[in-house]
Amino acid sequence: MSDLLETVDFFRDPDVAQDPYEYYEALRAHGSAVREPFHDVVMITGYEEAVAVYHDQAVWSSCTAVTGPFPGFPVPIEGDDITDLIEEHREELPFFDQLPCLDPPKHTDHRALLMRLITPKRLKENEEFMWRIADQTIDEFFGKRECEFVSEYAAPFTMLVVADLLGVPENDRNRFRERLVRRRDRDQGLGSTEGHEMEHTPIQYLYDQFAVYIEDRRANPRDDVLTGLAQATFPDGSLPEVGDAMRIAANLFAAGGETTARLLSASFQLLGDRPDVQQDLRADPDKIRNFVEEMLRVESPIKGDFRLSRVPTTVGGLDVPAGTTVMVLNGAANRDPRVFDSPSEFQLERTNARQHIAFGHGIHVCAGAPLARAEAVVTLHRFLDRTGDIRVSDTHHGPPDARKYSYDPTFILRGIQELELECTAS
Question: Region 354-360: what's the mean pLDDT?
């Protein structure tokens, strides 16, 4: 291995958290699947290998999807087939009750329940709301012609959109905003290894709120979205426990806002630094949709997901015993030169940009992907329509040739923590 892989701990090195791409390329130089030495995790950078892992539930379990090797499996892992061991100890694992960590058949049922909440009809109604709330959120700061984009637009906008999607009553939304919209530099969130603690905070707040909503709507049905959530059934017609239904809603709420806010912030960071791209979009708004796909490819909001091998297998020519943790690095696979020409370059008209796996792949592909795409498209349209120019603030971030940005200090999420923008009105 190169000195970089021998000396740098991907999961704990603060410099890699700020810029993981040199590390990705060091991995790639040794193959599409490489075992890192600090935590014995097989790191997958190859696009084809990543897709193959995501699609093979017989070999790979999602039980540790968001925690990986931290804090560890509850008991020693032994044997050439640990499927039964996983099921025996699943409920001892952090986040065992969340959709990303479920395996079939339970995942199949819970995913079906989720899709009952985000039907094409509901998404269309929600998109109509997006246009109004985008303008309302912009209006809050537009008079001063500058904003801290993450906290003043991306976080509140995405929170309000998913609140509308799930039918959170309007008189409760300000309370949600006060509790949940905060500067991300105060919260490391998923991907922190400090103390090896994996807490349900702030998701416990969402659990509590949605449990109240569901219990109330089951007792007192109304003609609203929350009643539809409360009455939604599994494919076999059975009514979920309140806990199952509220976890589905709460996790959609939390995950949808976090990842989409990062997509929006990365998009405006690039726009503010690339007047040529900004001008292209102003001249031809039809390019906005491909801009979003290329943005997802080049700056994936989720760095990667973990899987645990049930049985011995091979990935990228590397032998992988049962009980091995792998990390599928979406952000690296989306820069695989075997699939994407000049992969580190942002190309507005890249023809295969949508081939990215920023939303994952297979049965765990992000159910909220259409929502995230719509939020990004609406936001770009409204900002470009209302401004004549959007710029990154030199005062806050330094000159264009020496910008200074801070990113989330986690190994799971990729997002800028603060983005000061200036603009002129159209």
Answer: 97
Question: Domain residues of the chain, as ranges?
Answer: 3-425
**Does residue 202 have a cis bond before it (omega within 30 degrees)?**
yes
Instruction: For residues 299 and 268, give the distance between their C-alpha atoms in angstroms, rounded to a whole number.
Output: 12
Judge contact between 300 and 330, C-beta under 8 A.
yes
The Cα–Cα gap between 93 and 372 comes to: 29
The values of phi and psi at residue 105, to 5°, are -85, -15
The C-alpha atoms of residue 232 and residue 229 are separated, in whole angstroms, by 5
CA distances from 381 to 286, 334, 420 (A): 10, 26, 19
Q: How far is residue 330's CA from residue 284's CA, in Å, rounded to a whole number? A: 30
* pLDDT-based confidence at residue 179 (cuts at 50, 70, 90): confident
What are the tens digits of pLDDT across the range 43-102?
999 999 999 999 999 999 999 999 999 989 999 999 999 999 999 999 999 999 889 999
* CA atoms of 45 and 216, how far apart (whole Å): 47
CB 404 within 8 A of CB 251: no
| DSSP code for 70 | S
Name the CATH superfamily housing domain 3-425: Cytochrome P450 (1.10.630.10)
> Is 189's pLDDT higher than 60?
no
CA distances from 271 to 174, 258, 293, 297, 341 (A): 30, 20, 14, 16, 22
**Tokens encoding 75:** 């008991």
Residue 185 pLDDT > 70: no
Global pTM reads: 0.92
